[in-house]
């Protein structure tokens, strides 16, 4: 793995990578790629290892996905790191994931800054352990002025709860007389979601051989192209991401038209 390569020939050095790169229509690169990173636990189980080992391997693939996104010219990369439903997992696993967030953020911050990556957090951070929350806050603030790839990390995120919160904020504005009910439109709702200011995903990727969207960006993926693969997330390397982007580039997006 060659994360954060600045030389495209170095990063895409394998024949597979070079062939995929040559076939890509660079005019059709998705502006925003969202990923449901599934399969860490199964990857670890297949190898007789604890589930947390799978999450650690998955974190390494996030690093590679960021590097590939930069080289491909993707502007936004959104990753589903921890859902509102993930709290039901065994306490030891949740604790390990929260500690892993801190470890990864502290280790990668310098590299993210060097590559001009801006980090943005969506989801309810209030439930996170203080150390985890502080690590995210520090990473977000330290990269706030970066102007390259925007990495959106969904943590304690659920699309339905995000929409409920948005509706509540709109209701408050109506109650205060700041907004008329008849003036509420799609732009009003989008402006109150945690993704406000971020373009909707063009491509949604789900790894791990599951065919569902799992309460992820339900409003935002209304017209996203969906790409499902049976590859488990820790095995989803740069060539896998490039293959997904190639499949996307060959589709005709109609947005309900002809």
3D architecture notes:
This protein is 45% helix and 13% strand. By secondary structure, it is α/β, with parallel strands linked by helices. It has one domain (8-158, 200-249): 3-Layer(aba) Sandwich (Undecaprenyl pyrophosphate synthetase), CATH 3.40.1180.10. The protein is globular. It starts with 7 loop residues before the first helix and ends in a 9-residue tail after the last helix.
Q: How would you concisely characterize the structure shown here?
A:
The protein has 258 residues and is α/β, with parallel strands linked by helices.
Strand content: 5-15%
CATH level-four homologous superfamily name: Decaprenyl diphosphate synthase-like
Number of domains: 1
What's the number of helices? Answer: 9
Summarize the biggest pleated sheet: 6 strands, parallel
Cα-based radius of gyration, to the nearest Å: 19 Å
CATH class: Alpha Beta
The general outline is globular
Computed structural class:
alpha/beta
CATH-assigned fold name:
Undecaprenyl pyrophosphate synthetase
The largest beta-sheet arranges its strands as 3-4-2-1-5-6
Q: Give the end-to-end Cα distance, rounded to a whole number of Å.
A: 42 Å
Q: Quote the average pLDDT.
A: 92
Second rung of CATH, namely the architecture: 3-Layer(aba) Sandwich
Q: Unreliable stretches, pLDDT < 50, 5 or more residues?
A: 1-9
Total strands: the figure is 6
